[in-house]
């Protein structure tokens, strides 16, 4: 008689096997697709690693549950245990790097700008790395991130609610005192910027540049990562519970295998 726990493990691993094949296929497509942008190719290696990992775990789970091979089921449960530990470590890590908010409201403005915060040194080093930032910047350009800004004119523009990333990457810092023409077109006064800040000089009206290389844009991006990681932490907790349930079901399947004496290849009924 087929045990319910074996059926559940079989079903779950069929799903993860399908997901792994899709991830590997998409990764291969990105590798050979000449029209893929730099932003899209960023996902190639992570997808390939994820796909291969899921494929190996799924095959172990399927063989262990369908054919009741106890040895493979042991390996499957060991890998799930490592995943549970990894999810716990990631949760602690996410809490440690999500520091206080660095964005601040401006008087009379509907949007926020950022100031330098006490971000982890490794995080600043990773994001500010020239190669990494070029990839991030290419994603901002490819998704036309700044083309979604409101098109209001004059004083109306300052009333719009912009995110800290939009405010810091798509327009020059307010303290620079540049003259407004439209959301992404500002000109430097004859007298020069109001303050001798490097971001005021970096600003460009070229739509693929704007303030993407500004320090304020990078800091805003870090701030956005912090907010996203809070959401990821919730998803991570849900995933942790799911994996824990699968692990418990897997333990039941292993106990069934042992109780029935299935140590060799023996497909069920």
State which percent range the strand residues make up: under 5%
Gap between N and C termini = 6 Å
Helix percentage range: 55-70%
Backbone CA Rg: 26 Å
Average pLDDT, to the nearest integer?
Answer: 77
> Which residue ranges are poorly predicted, with pLDDT under 50 across at least 5 consecutive positions?
100-107, 262-269
- Sheet with the most strands, sense and barrel status: 2 strands, antiparallel
The number of distinct structural domains comes to: 2
Spatially, the strands of the biggest sheet line up as: 1-2
SSE series: HHHHEEHHHEEHH
Query: Strand pairing plus helix content: what structural class?
Result: mainly alpha
Q: Give the tally of β-strands.
A: 4
Shape: elongated
List the helices and strands and how they pair.
Elements (H helix, E strand, L loop, with lengths): L3 H29 L5 H4 L2 H23 L3 H28 L5 E3 L6 E3 L6 H8 L1 H13 L21 H6 L9 E4 L2 E3 L10 H5 L12 H46 L9
Antiparallel strand pairs: 1-2, 3-4
Helix pairs in contact: 1-3, 1-9, 3-4, 4-9
């Amino acid at each position: 008689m087929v045990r319910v726990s074996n059926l559940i493990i079989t079903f779950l691993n069929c799903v993860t096997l399908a997901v792994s094949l899709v991830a590997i296929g998409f990764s291969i497509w990105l590798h050979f697709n000449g029209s893929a942008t730099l932003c899209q190719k960023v996902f190639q290696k992570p997808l390939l690693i994820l796909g291969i990992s899921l494929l190996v775990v799924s095959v172990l789970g399927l063989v262990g549950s369908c054919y009741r091979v106890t040895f493979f089921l042991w390996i499957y449960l060991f890998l799930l245990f490592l995943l549970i530990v990894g999810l716990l470590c990631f949760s602690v890590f996410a809490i440690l790097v999500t520091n206080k908010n660095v964005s601040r409201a401006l008087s009379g403005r509907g949007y926020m700008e950022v100031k330098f915060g006490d971000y982890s040194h490794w995080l600043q080093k990773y994001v500010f790395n020239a190669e990494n930032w070029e990839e991030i910047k290419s994603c901002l350009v490819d998704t036309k991130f700044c083309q979604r800004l409101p098109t209001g004119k004059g004083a109306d523009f300052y009333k719009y609610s912009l995110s800290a990333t939009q405010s810091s990457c798509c327009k020059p810092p307010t303290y620079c005192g540049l003259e407004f023409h439209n959301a992404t077109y500002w000109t430097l006064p004859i007298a020069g910027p109001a303050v001798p800040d490097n971001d005021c000089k970096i600003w460009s009206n070229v739509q693929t540049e704007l303030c993407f290389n500004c320090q304020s844009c990078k800091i805003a991006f870090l701030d956005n990562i912090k907010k996203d990681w809070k959401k990821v932490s919730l998803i991570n907790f849900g995933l942790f519970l799911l994996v824990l349930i699968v692990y418990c079901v897997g333990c039941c399947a292993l106990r069934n295998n042992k109780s029935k004496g299935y140590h060799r290849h023996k497909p069920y009924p």
